[in-house]
Amino acid sequence: MDFYPVPENAFSAAVDLAVVLRGLALKQLLKQQLLRALLLVDETISCSKITPTAVDNIPLFRNKSYPIFYRSAIALTLAPHNSAILAQKIAQLLSSPNQTTNTEPEIRFQAIALTNGWLEFHLGDRGLAMWLDNVPRLFSWERSKRGREKSNLWALQYVHARCCSLLRLGQRERLLEIGELSQIGWQWLAPYPIPWLRSDLEGLRLIAPVERLLIQQLLDIVEAPTSVSTAKLAENLSRAILSFEQNCRIFAVIEQKPQLSQARLGLLALAQFVLRQLLQQGLQIEAPTGF
């Protein structure tokens, strides 16, 4: 099952929502979809606060555990006395196809209008796998350093070097092929695609809490407001990487579950790729590949 079930008596509408993956910040992409629906909503429901430039004012937050889903109280905000009706209407409008010929990949959510007026957007495992696949293509860090950002820079550099060491070990164990890790670009060569999903394509291989936490940290980075410092994001990512390494037996399951080892190394490679840009582009320090 790709999406996790919601009790039937808890929702009034559940529709498939296809979102063009123009960026990695799913929160922003969903806000744009919500704005599109709100601009089309029935005129009998007062939505005077909604304008084409009001996307940042749409309340939406991500559940910080698993499964990954986003919640919005926009219907409660705009129509507190008939929020369930508005939520249902918004969900129905979200199911309308976008008028676009864009060839970029689409990621699928399940949009759910709850009977209490909340809207939820559930990301299934196949959608999450697609998001992970597109991190190398879409991620770039362009925020400039803000003065002296306080951080234990050596510790961040150590974590990056440790990632590189584990990836090279994975190559020696013939689990993967990688390029030169001192380069800024994505260096993963094979296997491709990374086997995120089980062979039945119905579930992600990465189900351990520390694996989920590392994925959430990647989402936190791409969705972080500009007020959050690069150093803070790098510290949080580094802690998640160390916890992941300490609690996941990457190489102990090679014989029994080689594809699980590859998926774990793939997640580690994504974390290294992102951390490298945070260090070099954001903090303007070296990202060593070894000590």
- Global outline: globular
State the end-to-end CA separation: 44 Å
Main beta sheet: 5 strands, antiparallel
Strand content is 5-15%
Radius of gyration: 21 Å
Give, in spatial order, the strands making up the sheet with the most strands. 1-4-5-3-2
Number of helices: 8
Q: Please write the string of helix (H) and strand (E) elements.
A: EHEEHHEEHHEEHHH
Number of separate strands: 7
Structure classification: alpha+beta
| Average pLDDT taken over every residue | 88
Low-pLDDT segments, ≥5 res: none
Count up the domains: 2
The helix content, as a percent range, equals: 40-55%
The protein's oligomeric status is single chain
Structural write-up:
With 291 residues, the protein is of the alpha+beta class. The chain has two domains: 8-123, no CATH class; 145-282, no CATH class. It contains eight helices and seven strands, in the order βαββααββααββααα. The protein has a five-stranded antiparallel sheet with strand order 1-4-5-3-2, sandwiched between helices. Helix 1 (26-40) packs across helix 3 (83-94). The radius of gyration is 21 Å and the shape is globular.
Task: Give a quick set of tags describing it.
about 10% strand, about 290 residues, 7 strands, two-stranded antiparallel sheet, alpha+beta, single chain
Secondary structure layout:
Layout: E1 11-20, H1 26-40, E2 61-62, E3 69-72, H2 74-78, H3 83-94, E4 106-114, E5 119-123, H4 125-138, H5 153-172, E6 177-178, E7 188-190, H6 209-223, H7 230-247, H8 258-282
Antiparallel strand pairs: 1-4, 2-3, 3-5, 4-5, 6-7
Helix pairs in contact: 1-3, 5-7, 5-8, 6-7, 6-8, 7-8
